[in-house]
Design a protein that fits this description.
15 helices; Rossmann fold; homotetramer; alpha/beta; 7-stranded parallel sheet; 44% helix; 15 strands
Chain lengths: 371, 371, 371, 371
């Protein structure tokens, strides 16, 4: 991760984190550990916990050795998680790095007001703008809103890895298969693009007519869900909304069709009702066959969980996308640490200067020489 | 133009233009004449003039026959143009369709306040937001700001026709030629895409690092202007800014390189100084050879004027892009006519409902069936 | 034409043509004139004539000035052409460059036996292998059989310029239009590729199942002629065979569909019967509307003649394809001149060494550095 | 495998295998077992063995249950293999399905002359045309020479799965990485294509100038091995020849470069000398880091063995390619069974009729409707 490495080296020399306490909540695995190590090297005290069930034991041990206080353990229950959140909040962090807005909420509940926070996810940002609107008195930079992430991670990282995961799990060729992509946002665009690059004929289902026209100008077919589903060899959801593919739609799929979900929530496909009407049988790693009452069989990958992470052998986004995201985190935390009131309270986008710096560094790591 | 035809038929039935006077200023040629005819059929009185020198005689005659008052003649001078603008303003139009904001300005000067206006161009919108800011007391819908135009006209229409015009004028194959595109906005994106589709290796020169990163993720090389120009077989400007390729850059082009401009202003390439230092010699229709003092020769297409229109055989955007743009005009005028104060004064984007309706109609004309 | 220039310079220095008489029959226009000039500079006497009606007056004058004997004039009738052929044959040429095998036939008739000949076209080669089989006692190198021409000229040159010619003549966008390509040989492959690159959905009609499977693996749809024609917005023939699109098929085209032919013979579309049943009306340069008895209108470009040459503004193949073809001619003539019986009599392919040399030179002209 | 299924059903009805003994040597795994089952159902007696170490226990058991005589066991040594080959030969098979020509050789040695044989591999065909030339008195159809396999398996199957395997093993994005492909045959073409589709800049190294020109016209860079290797982020061999990337070339790779081999023989990269000079250290599944004496590190995937099969998680070609190959086997065996002397002795291509039938069936399985 050359971009993150260079950013951490630069920030470390500037000692922007010197003496600060950082509350850190993110999957604790080797890549995020690089960020923690850099914060520690920059002079910070880091109190950390992972997301439920994502803390890797070796990583936690290594972090502890480097001086990070790691609170959680792989087998923590819901109660323990809440206790860890409180404990970090009680530590009175100067900066918070959050993932889902729960640590930010814990700080607010504990009457703590860090100088600023970063929030990794769009769903966390949604909570900050809905249930937590107006109650967060400190700035929260929403990393996922950066246009860099839309391009590098959502379009190319997710798009490519979702299609890879489907091919890997099925050993299927997509040539002249009909792939129906639900949602033509950044992820859907990428999925459609990479499915076509593997020879698929792609239909986009997108209720926004302007985006749908863009799909058509990009060369894809456009159809409503009912028409599209009837032709699908493969259906992939990437809408960020729930029950996009309800059971009634599933019933109209051709025999042998495959469903997968690329959204963060597994509710895009009505897996619950599908399981009830036609319980799945594991026929290959991560691949379930559901024999519908009418006789047709449909396949579901990874039980409808986010397929590029949850399917067997899924490796998530490429390392370059992690490099980018963690750099945005490091630079945003540094900007909050160094700020003198130039951030307003509440959720807000990554400052343009940080987007520009990070984009330039990423271009250079790709061998490109911008102006 | 099926999308425009359907829109005009629908609006005509609704009689939204019944009894209204419409001041109309747009190139008067067969395609825009279809719009005028529809407005007349919808019950409007239309007082029209073209842009300088663009009124086609046959079109003007036909319009007059249909009942349109056409003021200008192909050989009008600057003074006559101003007189026509005043005369339309004095007619007290209820609605204004403008192209460059001069007719809107004339209405303001004459103390007339139409119910609303549309402005075709981005440069007209710029004037409305700069010199005319605050003085226009009625709503002006800026057609060119519609995301539909960015996609259909700028990216695909301009991108494809600019590359076509260059190939046509030179009978050159672009295979493994190095094409340098200045500007990675909507037009630049399209030019880069269609140059690659003809086999070129493309470098994007783009000062905004986020857009530059998008260019790299789209697969193009990214370089600063100095480095890029040294490698260029073909250089194309599409920035909307002036003197992007100054004479100092031109001097560093390889022998035999070709320059063309895709922006609306011919000042993107410093043609004036180039002509002074190395006067061009016409070597093929629209194609000028400039022998530089150092001995190298560079070629310039269409004297730096917008190449897809100005180069020999240039046909501008495809008819589908015109169909879209004129439909946005017709529907925006109708919305203004029917409005009861739901538009604020001053320049503003095309209402989302109109974008959605038009996108849906365009999708249907492409054989696609959105939801 | 850098590749031809370098080849002629090299051959000129070797004086391979010194003192030889070359009978030359090819379109006499500025590009072929470069080849004649090089042969003259290499020491040859050249007696030349063009194809019927293709000799350009200025070119003939320039050639005469350089010392070439040009026999024909732009307005020669069939009788004059035969006289010229005889006269060249009677001159007892040492080498013959032919285009259609008529000059070769004239030599045979006159009892002349040059050391060798080249034949530009596949149809000439066909005559040599059919009607003239066994009667030609000297070697004839068939230029068009070179794999280089298949790739550079047929696939990319023809493919790109045919699609260009259609777009140019119609000012139509191909986005999401259905383009049906008849024939998936080298030309058809290129047409399908470049139509897709302009946004078209492409169907290939190809009776050979192995080629049809290749089309499908290349991502195109495959259908029989009856099914394909019913869906066509644009139909393009590129089969080299006659009556591929008969009148019965034309009758099933959708209203508004366009037909064009990319094959050398205009008989691929049954234009004769179409004209009889539904005479064409010129609606734009090269574009004819045929109103079928049933009420539908179909459009025909360039009366079914080879569209990239015959349509208005058609410029034929790019200059790079000419550079390649004329270099193969020059090197093949030189090899025949220098040969000591290493060529067998009758039609035969371009020697591999010449293909290799020319491919290497062309790669270098494209800035590539093969091993 | 719908194409194989339909072929076996058709052949079974025709009873072409009735009463025949078939000697069968091919990897015994679930997909090849489908072919064996079909032969049994068609009335044949099948005596089978796998390749060394490739027989899967469950498959062997299932085959035995269906009535197939399976000779080998997963842990057989070289001696046992030879014994099995002899035993099959001694059974006097009417037809032989071979993979490497060893069973064919055993038949010749035993003085047995089946009615005909099929040979799966190109290397087996090479042995038949070299060491065994003239001694095989019965026809041998070489499956791998079919143009269908070149397209479906080599270009698309191998090309796609090789690039997949590299991305999977490294979790690397190929965007703007420089991928150097050695060999622009069918496999190399596919690798270059799929690497580009993942965003890579691709250089082809190909000594044949005509193929190299095709690579350039396909849009790839072309360079000699020395120049190419210096720029490589990833180098992939696909030449079918030995020591294409010798140690001297490896020494000039940039720091951090990755090597992988897509050819059948692992000798394309000089792994032996690389291991001696810079022994590899396993840094991730299948991924070895070699620290060169000069200080640079290069990575080697799967020890230079065929990467789409040998790398961790490698799944080989997609199932559609197997479906094709096994169908060619089934139909070729049937044609030999039914033949009355219409095949000449020795190695020969798949009959065109079988290619055509299989291509048609495959097109139909892809939803295409050829003429």
């Amino acid at each position: 991760m050359p971009v993150l490495g260079a950013a951490l080296a630069e920030l470390g020399q500037q000692r922007v984190f010197d003496g600060l306490t950082i509350g850190f909540r993110l999957h604790l695995e080797p890549k995020t550990a690089v960020l923690v190590k850099g914060l520690l090297a920059g002079g910070a005290r880091v109190v950390a916990m992972g997301n439920e069930g994502t803390t890797q034991f070796g990583t936690a041990e290594a972090l502890a050795e480097w001086g990070c206080e790691v609170l959680d353990r792989p087998d923590d229950g819901k109660g323990a998680v809440l206790a860890h959140l409180s404990r970090i909040a009680e530590a009175g962090p100067n900066l918070v790095l959050d993932n889902g807005a729960e640590l930010i909420e814990a700080c607010v509940s504990a009457g703590r007001s860090p100088k600023g926070a970063t929030e990794e996810t769009t769903s966390g940002a949604f909570r900050l703008r809905a249930g937590l609107a107006g109650v967060v008195g400190f700035p929260v930079i929403v990393i996922n809103d950066s246009p860099l992430k839309a391009i590098v991670e959502n379009k190319h990282g997710v798009g490519e890895s979702v299609v890879d995961a489907i091919v890997r799990a099925t050993n299927m060729s997509l040539h002249k298969k009909r792939v129906v992509v639900f949602g033509y946002g950044w992820c859907g665009r990428g999925i459609a693009l990479y499915a076509r690059r593997r020879g698929a004929d792609v239909t986009a289902v997108e209720p926004d007519p302007v985006k749908a026209l863009e799909a058509a100008m990009d060369g894809f077919d456009v159809a409503g869900p009912d028409g599209a589903v009837r032709t699908a060899d493969v259906g992939i959801t990437a809408t960020g909304r729930g029950r996009v593919v309800g059971y009634e739609l599933i019933e109209t799929l051709p025999d042998g069709a495959l469903l997968a979900n690329a959204g963060h929530t597994e509710a895009e496909i009505d897996v619950i009702r599908l399981e009830r009407e036609a319980p799945g049988e594991l026929v290959a790693p991560s691949l379930y066959a559901h024999e519908l009452p009418g006789g047709r069989t449909v396949f579901l990958l990874a039980k409808g969980r986010i397929v590029n992470l949850a399917a067997a052998g899924g490796t998530g986004n490429p390392i370059e996308a992690m490099d980018l995201g963690l750099t945005l985190q490091a630079r945003s935390l540094a900007a909050l640490a160094a700020s003198g009131g130039d951030f307003r309270p509440g959720p807000q986008p990554v400052p343009q200067k940080i987007n520009d710096q990070t984009a330039t560094a990423m271009l250079e790591s790709m061998g490109q020489t911008p102006a």
